[in-house]
Write a structure and sequence with these properties.
Length: 553
């Protein structure tokens, strides 16, 4: 075995987006593409002097490594081990077979006090040879690296000329236990054990066992992605849910052709089961890396924004949160349903830009306990990622503790706090210049929109959302154009930071309804006038030539 110094080249576009670097598999498979990014990351972690001199901060340190098992995961693991081994890392904790869900990486970093971790996933993006791959770095708090670090890595990718890599043969990544590559120790760990221990501390497993003994039924669709082994181990293994409650439970490299993005469009099989005459009591799905969740009752889908609001309202029923919440946070486009609950509870509610990395400081500083996003993500201070199975266990516990169905819990919530009708309309694969042009025009129109009368409503706030982190004072600007109306309705426009084909425009629509007799309209009908306003303001049809969104959830 020897250390090789290999020339590399600068690749355009290695700037991490909302959640790490995501590209088509074919892009990642270019010679030295992954290597270039990982070398840049290791250089930054080792400490980079202004003159480009690389320090030794990784010496004696442990990194966690694992991914969602998609195509290229196993190849990427071998490459990263060979780079880490000769760039100062002392030890890598590797999920068996290269597998770790995103929340599990976070849990392992925290429980084992690692320096940080590398997550291999493109999350909710499709997999397989023609699909997407991704990589991101999580820091010692277990959470996604902040923008300062990701920008430093990007800068380094653009300046790098050499790789330092071992020419050792591929390692055995499937057998539990320790082995050595160069000076580095690799410990292959059970991907599930640490995570299960964290869940056991938060939830009343005895109560949940009792629930299944009484005949409670559920269907969890792991969408052939990484959540399967975790859900099986906990729900069927620990809690005694009937065998077969977790479906599509074996992680496949191409997710068996499923699009592992848990929303009513992509999880249509689950939707069908939940609306059948013999539907189970509870349904749920997770995404590629198991950090997202969709929860359903019989014939009833819970909107992610409502899910966060209900969790906040009932948190004290769960042992891990029995002493109450320090505060809550939601991403800006997420509906304001949780704001009303926070107000009633007398706790702080923070509004952050899209992406879990913005919750990290608030969680670390003890300012919030629960966080959520409209994109089927909820989580808490137990890790620093959103957490799909955690959310499923939370909702299961709510049903166990109250003896009530998902639908009755949500309807009661609406009766108490009002309903925030909510939908996100995505326009996918728009040419980048068209999408950029649309956003530029919207931003230019902001002064004119302020105070404007649109339909029956008046705009009380028209701005481009900027966030000042209350903990470290860092500012993130241009996070989305928002129109807030006098009746609390909102329309928000932003471009996705996780897509890999052209640009994706997201339009977020929200309409508040306090009157119980008007809380049972079809969602799209309740939002139709806001859709018309969004079209009037942004001219999406004219600019894109698209007659409607590619996905509306
Ligand atoms: C999307 C979601 C965002 C989420 C991010 C990562 O980002 O909107 O809420 O945090 O994906 O989720 P964007 O920039 O495409 O809107 V995951 O589960 O894909 O890592
Ligand atoms: Co995800």
């Amino acid at each position: 075995m020897a250390i090789q110094n290999l020339p590399t080249q600068v690749f355009a576009g290695q700037r991490p987006g909302t959640s790490g670097l995501r590209k088509k598999v074919a892009v990642f498979m270019q010679p030295r593409y992954l290597e270039n990014f990982v070398q840049a990351l290791l250089d930054v972690l080792n400490g980079l002097a202004p003159d480009g001199q690389v320090g030794t901060a990784l010496q004696g340190q442990t990194l966690v490594l694992g991914g969602d098992g998609r195509f290229f995961n196993r190849v990427a693991v071998q490459t990263i081990l060979k780079l880490a081994a000769v760039n100062g890392v002392q030890r890598v904790l590797l999920g068996q077979g290269g597998i770790l869900s995103t929340p599990a990486v976070s849990a392992v970093i925290r429980r084992r006090q690692a320096f940080g971790g590398i997550v291999l996933s493109a999350s909710h993006n499709p997999g397989g040879p023609d699909g997407d791959f991704g990589i991101k770095y999580n820091a010692s708090n277990g959470g996604p690296a902040n923008e300062a670090l990701t920008e430093a890595v990007y800068a380094r990718t653009q300046a790098l000329s050499q790789l330092r890599i071992s020419d050792a043969p591929d390692m055995d990544i499937d057998t539990l236990g320790s082995s050595q590559i160069e000076q580095m120790q690799v410990e292959v760990i059970d991907p599930v054990a640490d995570y299960v221990a964290v869940m056991r501390d938060l939830f009343d497993f005895d109560m949940l066992r009792g629930l299944f003994k009484q005949g409670f039924t559920l269907r969890v669709d792991a969408m052939n992605a990484v959540g399967g082994p975790y859900a099986k181990a906990i729900l069927e293994g620990e809690l005694g849910a009937p065998a077969g409650s977790v479906v599509n439970a074996v992680p496949l490299e191409d997710f068996g052709g499923l699009h592992p993005d848990p929303n009513p469009v992509n999880a249509e099989d689950l939707i069908a089961h939940m609306s059948a005459a013999d539907a189970p009591d509870f349904g749920a799905a997770m995404d590629g890396d198991a950090d997202r969740n969709m929860v359903l009752g019989r014939n009833f889908v819970v909107t992610p924004s409502d899910s966060l609001a209900l969790m906040t309202a009932h948190a004290r029923l769960i042992p891990g949160y029995s002493s109450g919440l320090l505060g809550v946070a939601r991403s800006m486009p997420t509906s304001a349903a949780v704001d009303r609950v926070a107000k009633a509870l007398g706790i702080d509610c923070f509004e952050t830009p899209t992406g879990w990395k913005f919750f990290g400081n608030l969680l670390d500083a003890g300012r919030v306990t629960l966080c959520g996003e409209e994109s089927y993500g909820t989580g808490s201070s137990h890790v620093r990622e959103k957490d799909g199975l955690w959310a499923i266990l939370f909702w299961l516990s709510l049903q166990g503790a109250t003896g009530r169905s998902v639908e009755s819990l949500v309807r009661e919530h609406w009766a108490t706090y009002g309903r925030n009708y909510y939908s996100r309309h995505d326009y996918e694969a728009i040419p980048t210049e068209v999408a950029d042009g649309l956003m530029v025009a919207l931003r230019a129109a902001l002064p004119r929109l302020q105070g404007a009368q649109l339909g029956t409503r008046t705009v009380v706030l028209a701005d481009d959302f900027a966030y000042t982190d209350p903990v470290d004072g860092s500012v993130s600007a241009k996070q989305g154009v928002r129109l807030v109306f006098d009746d609390g309705a909102r329309v928000i426009f932003r471009l996705s930071g996780t897509g890999t084909e052209g640009a994706t425009l997201r339009i977020y629509l929200e309409n508040y309804e306090a009157d119980v007799s008007r809380q049972d309209q079809p969602v799209q009908a309740a939002l139709a006038d806001l859709v018309a306003i969004s079209e009037q303001v942004a001219g999406v049809r004219e600019r894109t030539g698209m007659v409607g969104p590619t996905v509306a959830t």
